Amino acid sequence: MPDSAESDLHHVKPFVYETPNVKALHFSISEVQSRMQVRHPDALDLEYTRTMMGFLLFHPAPRHLTMIGLGGGSLAKFCHRHLPRTHIRAVEINPHVIALRDSFQVPPDGPRFEVVRGDGARLVREAAVPCDVLLVDGYDSSGLPSRLGMARFYDDCHDALEPGGVLVVNLHSGHHRFDILVDRMRRSFDDSVLLVDASDRSNTIVFAFKDRDLADLRRGALRPPQGLDGVAFKQLRADFAAVVTALAAQDR
User: Fold this and answer.
1) How far is residue 218's CA from residue 76's CA, in Å, rounded to a whole number?
2) What's the pLDDT tens digit per position in 40-69?
3) Count of beta carbons in the 10 Å neighbourhood of residue 85
4) Tens-place pLDDT, residues 131-154
5) Among residues 45, 132, 137, 156, which one is catalytic?
6) Partners of 68 in the beta sheet?
7) 0.70 exceeded by the pTM?
8) Which of 97, 187, 246, 247 has the fewest CB atoms within 10 Å, i.e. the most exposed one?
9) Does residue 137 carry a catalytic annotation?
């Protein structure tokens, strides 16, 4: 894993664009990596991040959650606030992104939350502690790193999950290798894969299930996770509905 000053030179420094209401993380002015509401720093402001939280319909009480890609910490902050019994580990390879964690009010490291600098693909491959949920949103200044789209990576994600675990991947819908990436996930997860378009229509969220059949998930009654507080449920209600609709459409 990179830890030297020399390796820092290979990572692009992001910049922060701020208005009175919004703070955003950018690598280029044309693309937003992360966005935070200044008055509600724990809210999920980008549509696709809310869709990614649909994993709660399938795994409502994860003990261990790993996320690849910190960005401005939107998912990390939301999970830290609303999943108080979950240990969260966020893996970020770019030290310049990690350096902005205080600017985006990412919680300090503690007993149930940590930010780890490292290569997410390597960390998953060497994972000593399996996780229940694995969130992958590891875009850099050039887009999706090739190592986060390899067949070996998705095999390693499968192996890093506990039985019944869920992999959640954010893909840009227009990615030139979109179909190849989805096919690789289908192979690694025995075709137990669900695609859900985020409401912004520019992102597709892929849910891949370990040792769980989509037919069994469809037959189950998907309900809002018990214990999820009202603030979180209000934010996620429409996105939960989109996930349920996509799952039902698999029968058609």
Assistant:
1) 29
2) 999 999 999 999 999 999 999 999 999 999
3) 9
4) 999 999 988 777 789 999 999 999
5) 137
6) 91, 136
7) yes
8) 187
9) yes
